[in-house]
Amino acid sequence: MGMFGRSQRATFKPSVYNPGKRARRMPRWVFLMLIGVGLGAGGVLFLQANYGPPRLTIEQSEQLQSELNAANLERQRLRTQLGEATTQRDSSQAAQKQATTELTAAREQLQQLDKALTVFQNVVPPDPRGTDIGVRSGLFSRAPGKLSYQVLLMRDSKGPEFKGTLRLTVEGVYRNGRAGAIDLPPIDITLNHYHVAQGTAEVPEGLTPRSIRIQVMDPSDRQQAMRVYYVRG
Fold this sequence. Notes:
Layout: H1 28-50, H2 58-123, E1 133-143, E2 146-155, E3 162-174, E4 179-183, E5 187-191, E6 194-202, E7 207-217, E8 223-230
Antiparallel strand pairs: 1-2, 2-6, 3-4, 3-5, 3-7, 7-8
């Protein structure tokens, strides 16, 4: 013992985990790597849960596949419909082109007919009465009990078509020398620029036609033209 009291010596107590040895520390780089891996995995899970696309269930996947198939079928139908419409358009264009060609040809033929009609009109003698509707020609031939006729009517003015009646009165002589006259059945006519009335009518067996009086009557039974032709032969 000293003067200051009893001396105490430090007592060494070994570790209960590793008696007799000093504990080894984990290297710093391993520690940092583990922390980085943990943070990276957590970040991926966080982004997947909050910002990434949601995962589809089996039912949702089947529904999506069904809708995709339906969309493909609809696209194919629309393509087919577009093809048919294109074919119809091309066909319509071809038909329209053909119709235009035919219309042009018809117009050219009509012009030629108009020219020929003008020449014909100038050649045929006019009606001496000088009326708008004129009897320009009359051809008649007789046979026992029959009379064939051909009458050409022409109109000088241009306007609405004329609808009226053509009357033919046959004057002649019977076998006993007595004069007689009969009216043939009236003929309905429609006149734009010209009209040809022709046919064969019955007459009494004993009557020999000598002349034909031609009359053009309007719907009010007013005379618009008149001319007399003699029957020869």
